[in-house]
Amino acid sequence: MTKSGNGNPKENAGYKAAEYVRDGMIVGLGTGSTVAFTMDRLAERIKGGLRITGVPTSIQTAMKARERGIPLASLDDVSQIDLTIDGADQIDPSLMLIKGRGAAQVRERCVADASKRLIIVADSSKLCDQLSGPVPVEVIPFALGHVTRKLEQMGGVVVVRDGVKKDGPVLSDNGNIILDYHSGPIKDPQALESEINNIPGVVGCGIMAEFSDIMTVIVGENDDCRILGIKEE
Ligand SMILES: O=C[C@H](O)[C@H](O)[C@H](O)COP(=O)(O)O
């Protein structure tokens, strides 16, 4: 356990992750409310002289980074990312994840895949014994009906995600539709990830089962953080 103690689990996790960032690093910037705290801390460190380049995983994150004065590059501009810090919606004991409540899972997977190391920041409500979904699935609009039928044939319930602040479906930053696939408890996350991602028309789902070998999870509690996975800084 590491003491920080401000009573906000997401803030504790987000701030702790910023300690892993070293001068000169290219840093993947994930999406969500927990990573926003990491960016707050990075912005403070940049004012103190830290030099980094951030690679954002969403338009929202790019906007937040610019507001905070974090220099940015696109994924096209970098050959490798030193460290990516991102959030998650569910984390199982093997460090398999479900991501994508913010509809950013496709870009998040690209950035994670280009990274030497991945730090996931979350509060303890995200820890679970078994992933259970819903699994966000990004689908090209042309294939909406086809993918929906395929997913239903797999036995789950498909819901087109509605916008909270707009009428109609949520569109991802890539202009695609987001489905939430309610599968129930997921016995084999890797198998389900492959099965969903192999449906023609699917751009990417939110199960991320293949990153545990480069991953550290920082779990924020009220007054401290727990570190799971790779420990060295
Ligand atoms: O698409 C969104 C991302 O996968 C987020 O990292 C994830 O939903 C966690 O977000 P938050 O930190 O706000 O709980």
CATH topology of the largest domain: Rossmann fold
Task: Categorize the overall geometry.
Answer: globular
- Please report the distance between the alpha carbons of the first and last residues: 15 Å
Major beta-sheet overview? 7 strands, mixed
Oligomer: single chain
Helices and strands, in order, run as: EHEHEHEEEHEEHEEHEEEE
- Specify the CATH architecture of the largest domain: 3-Layer(aba) Sandwich
Number of domains: 2
Mean model confidence by pLDDT: 94
* Unique ligands: ribose-5-phosphate
State the helix count: 6
Number of strands: 14
Which percent bin holds the helix content? 25-40%
InterPro entries: NagB/RpiA_transferase-like, Ribose5P_isomerase_typA_subgr, Ribose5P_isomerase_type_A
Active site: 108 (proton acceptor)
Function: Catalyzes the reversible conversion of ribose-5-phosphate to ribulose 5-phosphate.
Catalytic activity: aldehydo-D-ribose 5-phosphate = D-ribulose 5-phosphate
Per-chain topology:
Elements: E1 2-3, H1 9-18, E2 26-29, H2 33-47, E3 53-56, H3 59-67, E4 83-86, E5 90-91, E6 97-98, H4 105-113, E7 118-123, E8 135-139, H5 144-153, E9 157-160, E10 177-182, H6 189-197, E11 202-205, E12 207-208, E13 215-220, E14 224-229
Bound molecules: ribose-5-phosphate (R5P).
Residues 30-34, 86-89, 99-105, 108 line the site of ribose-5-phosphate.
Task: Give a written overview of the molecule.
- The two termini are 15 Å apart.
- The chain has a 7-stranded mixed beta sheet, with helices on both faces. Strands 9-10-8-11 form a 4-stranded antiparallel beta sheet. A 3-stranded antiparallel beta sheet has the order 5-6-12, with helices on one face.
- Helix 2 (33-47) links the parallel strand 2 (26-29) and strand 3 (53-56).
- It has 2 domains: 2-127 and 210-229, Rossmann fold, CATH 3.40.50; 135-205, ACT domain (Alpha-Beta Plaits, 2-Layer Sandwich).
- Helices cover 27% and strands 24% of the residues.
- It is globular.
- It contains 6 helices and 14 strands.
- The protein has helices at 9-18, 33-47, 59-67, 105-113, 144-153, 189-197, and strands spanning 2-3, 26-29, 53-56, 83-86, 90-91, 97-98, 118-123, 135-139, 157-160, 177-182, 202-205, 207-208, 215-220, 224-229.
- Helix 1 (9-18) packs across helix 2.
- The model has no long low-confidence stretch (mean pLDDT 94).
- Ribose-5-phosphate binds next to helix 2 and helix 4.
